Amino acid sequence: MKIKLQPENLLEWIALKLNLAPTPLVDTQIAFNAARAIMAGAELGVYEAIGKKSKTAVEIAAACNTDAHATKQLLNCLVGIGYLNWNDEKYSLKPKYHKWLLKESEANLIGKLRFQLVEWNWIARLEDYIRTGIPLQLHSTVSETEWNLYQEGMRDLSINAAKELAGKIPLPKNAANMLYIGGLHSL
């Protein structure tokens, strides 16, 4: 799957074909802002506060213990990038994201999205690595909080793959137990 700029009308199609649209800005600034807004929603508990209902910005801010005006700005951004719906002064999470953004779903990615905030800071040092060749010593420098976020993120990445793979592993006919060797996030 490739994420790319997709024209929504004839004028936008022409602008892309004639190289009039500033594609590097869309590929960076727009994607950068969208990614950060999605992660902020996970970190602040916005998706969980909305759940499967419709709520006002004030209700969501109260549930998240955030500033109502600033929360409304984040919610409007999430509407703009297609994660939330807005109707009659209320916001709702689009149903296709319930699986990925609500903790009641075993397949949720909230832990990974929260860990991406840590990864965001790491990738901000990319130019230093390119200049010096000295890599980050992540495993020896992560804080306890970062380590816990890492574990949650790895759980999120592994759960769907584990479900898919478990049914495809050939087992002896009378097998009753399986030894799991991996991270502690399953305990």
Commentary on this structure:
With 187 residues, the protein is mainly alpha-helical. It folds into two domains: 1-94, Arc Repressor Mutant, subunit A (Orthogonal Bundle), CATH 1.10.10; 109-174, no CATH class. The protein contains ten helices and three strands. The protein has helices at 10-17, 23-44, 46-50, 57-64, 68-80, 98-101, 110-123, 126-132, 138-141, 144-166; strands at residues 54-55, 84-87, 90-93. The protein has a three-stranded antiparallel sheet with strand order 1-3-2. Strand 2 (84-87) and strand 3 form a beta hairpin. The relative contact order is 0.08. The mean pLDDT is 89.
Low-confidence stretches: none
Compressed to H and E, one letter per element, the order equals HHHEHHEEHHHHH
Average pLDDT, all residues:
89
Tell me how many strands there are.
3
What CATH architecture of the largest domain do you see?
Orthogonal Bundle
Strand order of the largest sheet: 1-3-2
How many individual domains? Answer: 2
| Broad shape | globular
The largest sheet is: 3 strands, antiparallel
List the helices and strands and how they pair.
Layout: H1 10-17, H2 23-44, H3 46-50, E1 54-55, H4 57-64, H5 68-80, E2 84-87, E3 90-93, H6 98-101, H7 110-123, H8 126-132, H9 138-141, H10 144-166
Antiparallel strand pairs: 1-3, 2-3
Keywords:
187 residues; mainly alpha; Arc Repressor Mutant, subunit A; 2 domains; 3-stranded antiparallel β-sheet; 10 helices; globular
